[in-house]
Design brief:
By secondary structure, the protein is of the alpha/beta class. It has a six-stranded mixed beta sheet with strand order 6-9-10-3-11-12, sandwiched between helices. A four-stranded antiparallel beta sheet has the order 2-1-4-5, covered by helices on one side. It starts with a helix and ends with a strand. Bound molecules: adenosine-5'-triphosphate. The site of adenosine-5'-triphosphate has 12 residues, from helix 11. It is a multi-pass membrane protein. Its main location: membrane. It holds the Pfam family ABC_membrane.
Amino acid sequence: MHPWKRLLRLLRPDRTDIRLVIAFAVAIGLLNLTVPIVTMAVVNTVAFGTLIQQLIVLCLGLLVALTIAGVLILLQYLLVEYIQRRIFIRVASELSYKLPRVDLKAFDHRYGPELVNRFFDVLTVQKSSAVLLLDGVSLLLQIGIGMVLLAVYHQLLLGFNMLLLGALAFWVVVLGRGAVRTAIRESVAKYRVAGWMEEIARHPVAFKLAGGPRMAWERAEALTREYLEARKQHFRILLRQFAFLVLLYIVINVALLALGGTLVIQGQLTLGELVAAEIVINLILATFLKIIKYVEAYYDILAAMDKLGQLQDLPSESLTGEHHVAHSKGASVTLHSVSFTYSGQKWPALQQLSLSISPGERVAIVGPNGAGKSTLADVLYGLRTPQSGWVEIDGVDIRSLRPDSLREHVALVKGVEIIEGTVLDNLRMGREEISLMQIHEILAKVGMLDTIMAFPDGLHTMLWGDGKPLSLGQASRLMLARAMLGEPRLLIIDEALDHLDEQFRDMTLATLLGPDTPWTLIVITHSEAVARQCDRVITLLPPARSSPREVQSRAG
Ligand SMILES: Nc1ncnc2c1ncn2[C@@H]1O[C@H](COP(=O)(O)OP(=O)(O)OP(=O)(O)O)[C@@H](O)[C@H]1O
C-alpha cells in the first residue's frame, strides 16, 4: 500500500478534527488579512489627513480581529495536540494487539525486536503531522489568499499568480520527483545502522572476542556509509527544490516591486494599494523559503508510514475456526504423513511423519541436531502449518481450531522467554485467575520457591528480558512452571530439561511424570536419562534427502 494511503487510513478517525484545524486556519488567514487592509486604510487616512478617531476605530477593529485569530490559533494548537496523542494511541494499540498474533513465519527471516524498532516512527508521524497541520495548512492558505488578494489589486498581478502557480507545479512534480523513494531509502538505511547497534548490544560476549570490536566498528562504518549515501541522494532533491525556491524568491521580489512601481507611476495603482500589495507579497515570499521545511516533513511522514506499514503488514494467525472442547485428562495426538518445509529451504524439516500418542502417555522425542524435533513441537502448538498431512489433537484436525483455543489445551516450553516484569507477571502471563497458592505450589515442585523467596521482593522481584537475575537453569524452571500453571492437556517441552542439573531435573521430571498430572507429555531431549524415564522414546531422524524417513519407536 502506498504510504500516502496508509497515512489517510491512520488519520481517518481524526478527520473531523482535521477539518476543524483547516477551517480555523482559513479563518486565521482571513483575519490576518486585516493587517494589510488596515495598513492600506491607515496609509490612505494619514495621507488625506483625516481625523484621529478614524485611526482609533481602525486600530480597535484590528485588535478584535487579531484577538479572535489568537484564540483560534490556541484552539488549533489544542486540537493538533489531541490528534497527535490519538495517533500514538492508535498505532500502539494496533501493534500491541497484532504482535502476539503474528504468524511465526514472519520472523523466520527477520529479527522481530529489530523490526519493532519501526514503532519509533510514530513519533515522526506525530511531530510531522503537527507541523504540517499547524503551519503547513496556514502557509498554503496564506499563499492562496495572498494570490487572490493580488489578483484583486490589478489584473497584471493576476498574471503573476498564474506564473507562480506554474512554477510551484514544476517545483512539486519535476523537482520533487523521487523524493518519497529516497526518503524511504534513507530511513531503511537508518534502521540498518540502529539494527546493527542493537545486535552488538544483544551479544555482549561475542563482541568481546579479540576481533569483535573491530567487526562492530567496520560493519557500523559500512552501514553508516550506506546511510550517508541514501541521505545524500535525498538531500540532493531537497537542495534542488530549495535552490529553486530561493531563485523564485529573488525574481519575484524584484519583478513585483518593478511592476507595482510602474503601475503607481502610471496611476493604475494607489500608493496604499502598492504598500498593501508589497505586504501581501512579502507575506507570500517569506513563507516561500520555509516551504522546504514542510516538504521535508511531508517526505519524512511518508517514509515513516512506510516503516510503520512493515509492522502493520506482518501476517497474522487466522483467528477463525472452532473452539476446542475436551475435558478428559490428557490429549491424544496423531500425525498423518506430516511434511513441513521452511520457506526458502530446499529440504523438508519434517517429511511424511506419522505417529500416534495416547492420552496421558509420556513420550520422549530424541534425535540428532536438525532432525526436526523443534519443528514438530511448533506444528503441534499450531505455530506452523504442514504443507501436507495433518495433525489431530483429541481426534480433531487442528486446522479447524482457533489457535488461541488450541493453546488453552496445549502448552509449549521452548527456550527462555522471560518478559520484563515481576516473577509473578512472568508466571501468570495475564491469567489472573491463577492464585498465589497455586504459584507457591508449582514453584516448590520445580525447586524454585526458596530461590524466589530469598530475593528481597520475593514474587515481586523484577526480571529483565534476558532472565536476569536468574541463572539459565532457574529461568528454564520458571518457564516450566509457567506452562504447568495452565494445566494443559498436552505439554510439550523442547529441551528445557536439558539445561537443568541432575538434582533439579529429576525433581522437575517427578512433577511432570506424576500420576495425577492432567497432561499428555512430549519431552524433546538430548538426555538419555530424561528419555529413559518416559513411557516411550521416539527417535526422529533427519529427513532422508531422497526418500520418506522412518520413525523409530521403542518403549522407555
Ligand atoms: N526458521 C527456520 N528457517 C529455515 N529453516 C529452519 C528454521 N528453523 C529450522 N530450520 C531447519 O529445519 C531443520 C530442522 O530444525 P529443528 O530446529 O526442527 O531441528 P531439531 O531437531 O530441533 O534440532 P536441535 O536438536 O539442534 O534442536 C534444520 O535443518 C534447520 O536448519
